[in-house]
């Protein structure tokens, strides 16, 4: 199970104020909280290192999009609604939340696709024990899941960018018993985070009775799905993960930091760990370029988070970028 495409276990520093190895939502959101250090830099940005574990202008029709993706071995779950918490869906590799509920009742996830994984993975999946598949197989499975769930999600929400991360997709694989019976499908669910839940944590919001309403909102008000953080008495000179009491919040005038996306640092998977200094420079340049490409900031300022050595070994090759809202021109 993963939150796509965000895993916040990085390091932070301001970008000259952006140079810290930072974090993101539950995998910015939860996985991002393994910071190793922080410093400051101008774009004016901050940076830190974090560890890692692991769109078309036309309207989208989820019914039409999803119904075409149901091969014979896939469970007939497209269009069904389910109830689970953010912690649960972020941790589950297989669905453990019980039966689906009518979409007219309160629910937090919606199945927008269910499709068979590549046939060649079936025997390997069945031969491996539960979640104890070897790492190479796990990478192949994760890539196949991303190809299915990620691409269907992009079809459904083409207007959402790397900044509008409060709408996320989750994947669920067959249980051991289902796998032994030959199942090789992946189920793809969409959920929305509610940053202003009042708990100080990112919780899942109740979804509308019709998924079309969420799709429509992604077209008409995409910025409603941006992720911001705030803390009482916080300073723009300290990053969002280094400030005591920092918590998710709606992106209103009171917000201090705006999540600006996860961006690749340009290193291939096989590259050896380049060292903190090289990663700070790469993350600084990457987040600076990402902000300037938006054309929304005159004096960019923010923080970034880059991979720690452990995160690098686990495949981390991205920077998490944050803008300081009180320094945005």
UniProtKB/TrEMBL annotation:
Q: What InterPro entries does the entry give? A: Septum_form (IPR026004)
What keywords is this UniProt entry annotated with?
Membrane, Transmembrane, Transmembrane helix
Which spans are transmembrane here? 15-35
**Domain annotation Septum formation-related: ranges:** 97-321
What name is this protein filed under? Putative regulator of septum formation
Q: Cite the source lineage.
A: Bacteria, Bacillati, Actinomycetota, Actinomycetes, Micrococcales
């Amino acid at each position: 199970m993963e939150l796509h495409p965000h895993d916040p276990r990085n390091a932070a520093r301001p970008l000259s104020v952006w140079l810290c190895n930072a974090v993101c939502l539950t995998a910015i959101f939860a996985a991002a909280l393994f910071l190793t250090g922080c410093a400051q830099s101008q774009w004016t940005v901050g940076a830190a290192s974090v560890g890692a574990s692991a769109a078309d202008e036309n309207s989208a029709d989820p019914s039409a999009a999803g119904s075409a993706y149901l091969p014979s071995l896939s469970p007939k779950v497209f269009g069904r609604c389910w109830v689970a918490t953010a912690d649960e869906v972020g941790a589950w590799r297989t669905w453990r939340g019980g039966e689906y509920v009518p979409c007219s009742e309160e629910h937090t996830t919606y199945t927008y696709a269910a499709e068979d994984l590549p046939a060649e993975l079936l025997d390997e999946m069945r031969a491996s024990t539960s979640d104890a598949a070897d790492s190479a197989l796990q990478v192949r499975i994760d890539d196949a899941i991303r190809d299915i769930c990620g691409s269907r999600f992009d079809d459904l929400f083409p207007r959402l960018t790397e900044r509008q991360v409060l709408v996320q997709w989750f994947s669920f694989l067959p249980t051991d018993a289902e796998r032994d019976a030959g199942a090789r499908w992946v189920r793809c669910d969409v959920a929305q985070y509610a940053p202003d839940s009042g708990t100080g944590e990112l919780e899942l919001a109740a979804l509308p009775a019709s998924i079309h309403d969420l799709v429509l909102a992604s077209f008409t008000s995409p910025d409603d799905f941006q992720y911001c953080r705030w803390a009482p008495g916080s300073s723009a000179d300290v990053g969002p993960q280094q400030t005591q009491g920092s918590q998710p919040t709606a992106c209103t005038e009171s917000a201090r930091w705006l999540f600006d996306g996860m961006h690749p640092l340009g290193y291939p998977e096989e590259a050896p760990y380049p060292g903190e200094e090289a990663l700070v420079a790469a993350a600084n340049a990457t987040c600076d370029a990402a902000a300037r490409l938006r054309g929304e900031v005159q004096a960019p300022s923010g923080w970034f988070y880059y991979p720690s050595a452990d995160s690098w070994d686990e495949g981390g090759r991205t920077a998490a970028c944050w803008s300081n809202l009180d320094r945005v021109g």
